[in-house]
Amino acid sequence: MNANNYVVGVDFGTLSGRAVVVRVSDGAEVGSAVHEYAHGVIEEHLPGSSVRLGPDWALQSPQDWLDVLRFAVPSAISAAGVSPSQVVGVGTDFTACTVLPTTADGTPLCFETPSLPHAWPKLWKHHAAQAHADRINALAASRGEAWLPRYGGKISSEWEFAKGLQVLEEDPSVYERARRWIEAADWIVWQLTGVETRNVCTAGYKGIYQDGGYPSAEFLSALNPDFADFVHKLTVTEPSTPGAPVLAPLGGLAGRLTARAAEWTGLPEGIAVAVGNVDAHVTAAAADAVRPGQMVAIMGTSTCHVMPSDRLAEVPGMCGVVRDGIVPGLWGYEAGQSGVGDIFAWFVDNAVPSSYAQEAKARGLSIHEHLTGLAAAQAVGEHGLLALDWHNGNRSILVDHHLSGVIVGQTLATRPEDVYRALIEATAFGARLIVETFERSGVPVEEFVVAGGLLKNRFLMQVYADVLRRPLSVIGSEQGPALGSAVHAAVAAGAYEDIEQASAAMGKRTVAAYVPDDKAADAYDLLYAEYRRLHDLFADGDILHTLRRLRNAATGPGRPSIQGSEAGA
Ligand SMILES: Nc1ncnc2c1ncn2[C@@H]1O[C@H](COP(=O)(O)OP(=O)(O)O)[C@@H](O)[C@H]1O
Ligand SMILES: O=C(CO)[C@@H](O)[C@@H](O)COP(=O)(O)O
């Protein structure tokens, strides 16, 4: 193994893109850079336009993604102090399902018609297609579609089919012009190589690709006759077998860096480009956790739980089980919580008095660090609160993105740090319910490995160890997805035989970095029992869906407006 060879991993997260330069021989990260998306998450109105977006919309700009290639990659190479000629491959990963309509040559439709909301990429957290997902689930259940149990009995509004059906029914002109409906994970590889691919991971977890195919045209037509051709927008086919979808395997060589992409990135034209991947699933390789029973929780804006397994089982409320979905040769399970870091961000941005921010600044702490310090000083249960971590819907195990958050137990004495701690605990309880659901379904969770931006919160990590009553292993990188993409790049470049070998050489984790404290764990068991009762009380959505309907009616076109003196009456 040439110790002077490097690979570059590029992780496209929700708020920014991160590039890491990694030594092929041992996975040492020698340089990195971050590029914040200029448009961030587009939720209110289209960029440079007064066109307002509806509730639960979340879009992103393809130009922001291209800017990551143009700025973060060269900066990472510069920070690494290595010559670009030493770089033998590049790998990428993306949030998913982040999906966009394009022309046949991959041009995003929003570049052509920027004033049409449906022409823009729909970010993974776009939850405005829940009604479409409900229809897909109801029809699939009534017809006994074989693929439905592979997704725990429900497909998500976050995924390709619900979002595609929403475009068809809300803007048929965009649907008609879209020759491709493509995950950003595959679109960015297309930009780097000029080769259009569909990776097995997003196809399986987000595109309902199971047992060699997509849902039938007959099923799609029953949803909407004009939806029958949708699969053609998803599919890359071999010329020899027209119509048969061809998926690209993880760790495979998608193509080679084009001259245009070489100019963007400063990397050598012709180097290997790995098949695209999802930010969560690629992280398993970075943690050297690609064996059956190793659950990796990528904890950031959201949390994704990914786990290889040698057994196929129906696990209620999972995000999916896909053959070869994490590593070739094994089943790959995914579960998730669609709001974790985002919930903490919402709270500090909207519900904390400025005095806390001033105190944090005076102490040289972030507001998260300051609130965490105050919260950590409490005994378990001292705040008297309990929360449901559904502020961005529930991904597992209820798969309902029209659920919303719940906090009970507040009194006139409740302080911001009390609520902040209750929110942290609620996300831990949600994770425990996911782990218990796997184990009850016969899929053992042998090791719980943590990655992602929330690693920096040591108190939060200890809460998870106590609530889960199991040790937490911790990935040895602050850029897990980017390192994972670099591992895949090394395989694509031919430096390793397969992902397992590359992961063993380049991935890293500390086993049992956190161990449960029995006294705290006992106290959390009592709170968790109440969490399960609160969970089951609100799970059917009866109250929370009603609140959403009332909210949407109040903010809709015919909303009553109270002006002037009446407003304060
Ligand atoms: N000290 C902290 N404790 C808890 N949450 C934090 C802390 N610092 C940042 N966050 C949250 O972490 C999330 C960002 O996670 P990160 O993994 O960096 O991004 P991404 O999810 O885009 O990959 C944000 O939602 C932010 O609110
Ligand atoms: O859903 C998945 C993966 O399946 C994630 O890409 C999505 O939740 C976004 O993750 P982040 O929290 O932005 O890292």
Automatic annotation (TrEMBL):
Similarity remark: Belongs to the ribulokinase family.
Catalytic reaction list: L-ribulose + ATP = L-ribulose 5-phosphate + ADP + H(+)
EC number: 2.7.1.16
Top-level division of the source organism's lineage: Bacteria
Keyword line: Arabinose catabolism, ATP-binding, Carbohydrate metabolism, Kinase, Nucleotide-binding, Transferase
The protein's annotated pathway: Carbohydrate degradation; L-arabinose degradation via L-ribulose; D-xylulose 5-phosphate from L-arabinose (bacterial route): step 2/3
Domain Carbohydrate kinase FGGY C-terminal stretches: 296-493
Gene name for this UniProt entry: araB
UniProt organism field: Nonomuraea recticatena
UniProt protein name: Ribulokinase
Transmembrane feature ranges: none
Catalytic class of the enzyme: transferase
Gene3D superfamilies assigned to the protein according to its UniProt record, in alphabetical order: 1.20.58.2240, 3.30.420.40
Domain Carbohydrate kinase FGGY N-terminal: 6-205
